[in-house]
Amino acid sequence: MLLEVRNLSVSYGNVSAVSDVSVHVEEGSIAAVLGANGAGKTSLLNAIMGVTRAQGVVRFAGQVISGWSSARRVSAGIALVPEGRRILLSLTIEENLLMGAYQRRDREITGDLTKMYDLFPNLARRRNYLGSVLSGGEQQMLAIGRALMARPRLLLMDEPSLGLSPLFVREVFNLVRSLNSAGLAILLVEQNTRMALQAARRGYVLKLGRLALESDTEELMKSDDLTKAYLGDDVTVKHRLHA
């Protein structure tokens, strides 16, 4: 198992954002975390990344990393594509990409930069343009490329299709599948339930910070409880479907 999260909880003051959630991601697989706004999805990813303080156990590649800084987690092989992209608008495309490799000191950074331009030819043609001139879809591709420059084994993706045109949504999910086919494990937070479940092998549904459902995605897509979890019906505690 590449990533194991056990009984993770996140609070902001007296407000509980995530309560006793456990998820796992197998090496080379895609897992999806679903749920309505405010379900705790982003807090879960930020806790795994070490951006947000949390209680519980996070284990990566056999090591307990719960007390590690986010920088150390990046060095270990975890990278985050944050919600809203958060590229640096005052830097060029190339400078943004190089920010993803800021902890690396190896000689292969230049080669990896070339790989990013091969993967994202639109960015290659505009490498000296500022991030501020890019469309939302182009900024999302840049954010993904920046994360890939860290050479992760696990990529955390927070709402990668948010605010994008249908064309770019398809491109994002095609990219997710392509990266996974190359061996990259992905933990995907998404509100586009259909496309997320089609891409992932395993799904988790959060409701009000708690794990309401978990199963292989084929079972989740057949389950009436998936709709209930979104609509606020009586799926309030974890329910493991037949998988």
From TrEMBL:
- What are the ABC transporter domain coordinates in residue numbering? 3-233
Instruction: Drop me one GO molecular function for this one.
Output: ATP binding
SUPFAM superfamilies annotated for this entry? P-loop containing nucleoside triphosphate hydrolases
Task: Give the family, as the similarity comment puts it.
Answer: Belongs to the ABC transporter superfamily.
What is the protein name given in its UniProt record? Amino acid/amide ABC transporter ATP-binding protein 2, HAAT family
> Which Gene Ontology BP terms does the record give?
L-amino acid transport
Q: What does this protein do?
A: Involved in beta-(1-->2)glucan export. Transmembrane domains (TMD) form a pore in the inner membrane and the ATP-binding domain (NBD) is responsible for energy generation.
Q: Out of the domains of life, which is the source?
A: Bacteria
Keywords attached to this Swiss-Prot or TrEMBL record, sorted alphabetically, are: Amino-acid transport, ATP-binding, Nucleotide-binding, Transport
